[in-house]
């Protein structure tokens, strides 16, 4: 497991005011996928998927994703590089979430507090809103 944050003690040091000292953990799953988990950071970890930024607690990254810690976006290849050239790290193709649930925290301002956590979210083709599968 690797760490990301504003402290120089982290594996990935991000010198940005919106990044917490220990912002997130990143690891390679048993299947070889890259997994990022927010470490209860002040300004959150955000995933860009399907054209929208979504606040994420834990996510398996896909090839089309973008990720930011607070307001600081980090290229996916920088995250993969944390594990070295010998590591067998891969990203999910496209936006597939089958097999493993992804947890998202919806950041829409009009939702009641606490913010809703969705498992296996899907985008409604008519409204474009992210919904929980039933």
In short:
With 134 residues, this protein is mainly beta.
Describe the structure.
With 134 residues, this protein is mainly beta. It has one domain (2-99): Tumour Suppressor Smad4 (Sandwich), CATH 2.60.200.20. Helices cover 4% and strands 37% of the residues. The protein has one helix and twelve strands, in the order E-E-E-E-E-E-E-E-H-E-E-E-E. Strands 1, 2, 3, 4, 5, 6, 7, 8, 9 and 10 form a ten-stranded mixed sheet that branches. A hairpin with a 2-residue loop joins strand 5 (45-49) and strand 6.
- Biggest sheet descriptor: 10 strands, mixed
Euclidean distance between termini CA atoms: 32 Å
Q: Judging from the principal axes of the Cα atoms, what is the shape?
A: globular
Just give the CATH class.
Mainly Beta
Work out the strand percent: 35-45%
- CATH topology, which one? Tumour Suppressor Smad4
Question: Which architecture name does CATH use?
Answer: Sandwich
Averaged pLDDT = 79
Determine the structural class based on helices, strands and strand pairing: mainly beta
Number of strands: 12
The value of Rg in angstroms is: 15 Å
């Amino acid at each position: 497991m690797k760490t990301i944050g504003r402290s120089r003690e982290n594996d990935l040091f991000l010198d940005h005011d919106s990044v917490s000292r220990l912002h997130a953990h990143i690891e390679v799953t048993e299947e070889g996928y890259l997994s990022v988990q927010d470490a209860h950071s002040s300004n959150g970890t955000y995933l860009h998927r399907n054209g929208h930024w979504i606040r994420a607690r834990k996510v398996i990254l896909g090839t089309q994703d973008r990720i930011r810690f607070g307001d600081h976006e980090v290229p996916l290849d920088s995250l993969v590089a944390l594990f070295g050239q010998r590591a067998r790290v891969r990203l999910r193709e496209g936006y597939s979430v089958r097999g493993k649930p992804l947890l998202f925290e919806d950041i829409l301002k009009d939702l009641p507090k606490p913010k809703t956590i969705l498992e296996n979210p899907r985008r409604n083709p008519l409204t474009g809103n992210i919904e929980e599968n039933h």
